[in-house]
DNA sequence: ACAAGTACTTACCCCAAAGTATGTATCATG
DNA sequence: CATGATACATACTTTGGGGTAAGTACTTGT
C-alpha cells in the first residue's frame, strides 16, 4: 500500500487552496463572471437548467454548465435529475450554499443603497 | 459645441455598468485577484503603501497600484499623501468603503466555518 | 423519418487581466 | 556623487477564463 493515489480531494482543494485570505477564499468559490448571477437567481428558489438559461440570456450553455458543475463540486449547489425524457434537471442551493445567503443579502443591500439600477 | 467629449464619467461607469444583477455589481467592484486581499487588510485599519506590499508579498507593484487606483475611482478607498520625502502615503477604507464591512465580515465568517485555514 | 425539446459535451479561438522588467522623482545621508 | 528609501509609471509579454460553434442522446409528436 505504498502507492499514492491522486485522490479527488486534492483535486477539489486545488482551486480553493490558492486562497491566502478568507475573503479571497470566498471569492474563489463565488467569484467569476457567472457564479454571482447564478447564485442570485438560486436565492429565490430551485430552478431548472432551462429556467436559468432564460433568466440569464447572455450566458452560454458551456459556461452555465461549467459553473454549475464547479459549484456542485464545491457543494454549494445541489443537482436533482428526474429520470424522464426529455430531461428534467433542477438546481438549488445546498445546505452549505444556503449559508452564503447572508453574504449575498448584504451584497444586494449594498448595491441597492448605491447607484446600481437593475436592468 | 457639437463635439462629443469622451468624458471621464463614462469611463468610470464602464466597468460598473456591465452588471446585470446586484451581486454582479458588487463583484465588479470588489472582485478580481487582488481587491479582496487588499480590502481584507484595510479592514484592520489604514495602511501605508509599503505596508500593503509587505502584507501581500505575492502582489506586484503594478497590480497593487492599479487596484488601489480603481478603488479610489470607485470611492471605496481613500488615499492620503503627506508631502514629505521619502513619500508617505496612506490608504484606508472611505466612508463608502466602510459599508462593505458587513459583506466582508460575512465572508470571513463563512470561510472560518469551513475548511479554510489561514496561511 | 424527421423535427423538436432538454440537458449536456467538446474542440477550438480570443482577449483582457495579470505578470515581467525597467524607469522616474525627490531628498537625506555617507 | 552615489546609494537608499518610497511611491509610483509604462512598455511588453503571457495565460487562462470566457466565448463560438457544433455535436450527442433519448423520446414524443406529426
Automatic annotation (TrEMBL), chains A, B:
Entry's Gene Ontology molecular function annotations: DNA binding
InterPro entries: HTH_HxlR, WH-like_DNA-bd_sf, WH_DNA-bd_sf
Residue span, HTH hxlR-type domain: 21-119
Keyword field: DNA-binding, Transcription, Transcription regulation
SUPFAM superfamilies: Winged helix' DNA-binding domain (SSF46785)
Keyword Transcription: yes
Official protein name in the record: Transcriptional regulator, HxlR family
Organism the protein comes from: Pedobacter rhizosphaerae
Amino acid at each position: 500500500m505504498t502507492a499514492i493515489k491522486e485522490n479527488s480531494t486534492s483535486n477539489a482543494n486545488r482551486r480553493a487552496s490558492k486562497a491566502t485570505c478568507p475573503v479571497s477564499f470566498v471569492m474563489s468559490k463565488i467569484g467569476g463572471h457567472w457564479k454571482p448571477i447564478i447564485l442570485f437567481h438560486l436565492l429565490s428558489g430551485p430552478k431548472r437548467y432551462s429556467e436559468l438559461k432564460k433568466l440569464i440570456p447572455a450566458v452560454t450553455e458551456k459556461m452555465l454548465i461549467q459553473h454549475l458543475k464547479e459549484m456542485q463540486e464545491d457543494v454549494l449547489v445541489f443537482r436533482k435529475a428526474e429520470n424522464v425524457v426529455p430531461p428534467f434537471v433542477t438546481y438549488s442551493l445546498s445546505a452549505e450554499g444556503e449559508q452564503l445567503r447572508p453574504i449575498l443579502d448584504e451584497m444586494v443591500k449594498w448595491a441597492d443603497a448605491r447607484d446600481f439600477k437593475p436592468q
